Amino acid sequence: MTTHIHLFNDDGADDEKDGVFVPVEELDENFTDIGNLVDMVSSESNRDKLKSTLKHINFFLRHQSTFPWKAFDEMSLEDHNDSFAGALATYFGRYARKNCNIKNGHLAYLSSYNYMSGYKNLVLDCFKDQPEPAIFSKGKWGKYLRAIFREKSQQAKKEGKVSSFLSCVTVQVVHIDMCKLYISICTSCTY
Known about the structure:
The protein is mainly alpha-helical. The protein has one domain (about 50-180). The chain is about 55% helix and about 5% strand. The chain has 5 helices and 3 strands, in the order ββαααααβ. It has helices at about 35-60, 80-95, 110-125, 140-160, 160-180; strands at about 5-10, 20-25, 185. It has a 3-stranded antiparallel sheet. The chain is globular. Residues about 1-10, about 15-20, about 25-40 and about 170-190 have low confidence and may be disordered.
């Protein structure tokens, strides 16, 4: 009997990637967490999301005056500290606009949240051989995500969009719960 990991990718497209069974034996040492498993299913989509995240981070760096860097690749691991992460969370929550274009509307809550998560993935990927920065500890990281939530809820109140904001937050919680259900280990699968 072979143990498989079932990955469900609901990216909106009706294709062969919607359900993938991967034999555990095929997972090498690089596939140590759920993020890496999901990469197997939708790596092109994830790359596009990380490119977009990097575009936002570089836009933020070029247009701010607090930090000396003007691009993500100029930063060392030590530069990814509480001050920078807090400023970036504020940018995503309060100022970031679709496609980094000032003429476009502000990012939605989920987009801001996902961009902040993309920032974490970029840092962890770029500095994978070094210790994880303290900003990613559970307590600190939650502080940045809550800051985005506060900024977006205030923005929704100002714009009179509280009900759509609350619907969006509810969808996110349901989506997270559904992802936990979709990613399951099948011990009796014989695919």
